[in-house]
Amino acid sequence: MTSLGASTVLFFRRPGDAGGTFQKVFLGFAAGVMIAASVWSLIIPALEESELAGQIVWVPAAGGIILGAAFLFALDNLIPHIHPFENLIEGRSSSYKRSTLLVFAVTLHNIPEGMAVGLSFALALQHLAEPAYMAAAVALAIGIGIQNFPEGAAVSLPLRQEGMSRAKSFGIGLLSGAMEPIFGVIAILVAAYLAPIMPWLLCFAAGAMLYVVVEELIPEAHLGEHSNTGTLSVLVGFLVMMVLDVALG
Q1: Mind listing the pLDDT tens digit for each residue in 219-234?
Q2: For residues 218 and 21, which has the higher predicted lDDT (pLDDT)?
Q3: Domain span at residue 23?
Q4: Number of domains the chain contains
Q5: N or C, which end of the chain is more exposed by having fewer CB within 10 Å?
Q6: HEC per residue, the chain
């Protein structure tokens, strides 16, 4: 899906065609999907797991969200990156090219997304006798996959707008999604050894995703100004992910 999103750059004849409206729609939609996925696919299952384990239900949820947000906050300040339509480098100072810094920015988004999908399937493997868990994991994978489309476009379109060739813009957009499956596998392996703290892990991923949404996606969807387009895109993304989770779960 990241590759398909990056391929949108092949359909613009002029760099200027890849305008800000597309960014608002794409990034707003991704934000909505991630908010809904955090609630329905991660936080609610974590609360249910805590209750089954006889724990104080809200403690793992609150603690995991705080730790996940803190983890992304640390990465945000350590990894040099830059966002579309901006010139300010965030994180540590760096001499990397702009294209590399853009990929780093999307990598920050893909880390919690990969963790979320991996942990959701790990939870399903722990409840093989209950098909609903696997259905919920599949719904989350589909939802995250759908929002990977705009993330691929969010890398390739700005690069094309800055004058880079279509082929190179597409290639960099494709590579930007490489970290997601890696962190998905890491999450599954970790969950296999830390099953008793699964509620903490699920909410850790949720907190990391919510940090990305609030810190990066929603501000970028509005591009520094009030935008009905960006707002409506967030709502559409939220509804799509909610329907997927409820319908398939």
Answers
A1: 777 655 556 777 888 8
A2: 218
A3: 2-248
A4: 1
A5: N
A6: CHHHHHHHHHHCCCHHHCCHHHHHHHHHHHHHHHHHHHHHHHHHHHHHHHHHCCCCCHHHHHHHHHHHHHHHHHHHHHCCECCCCCCCCECCCCCCCHHHHHHHHHHHHHHHHHHHHHHHHHHHHHCCCCHHHHHHHHHHHHHHHHHHHHHHHHHHHHHHHCCCCHHHHHHHHHHCCCHHHHHHHHHHHHHHHCHHHHHHHHHHHHHHHHHHHHHHHHHHHHCCCCCHHHHHHHHHHHHHHHHHHHHHC
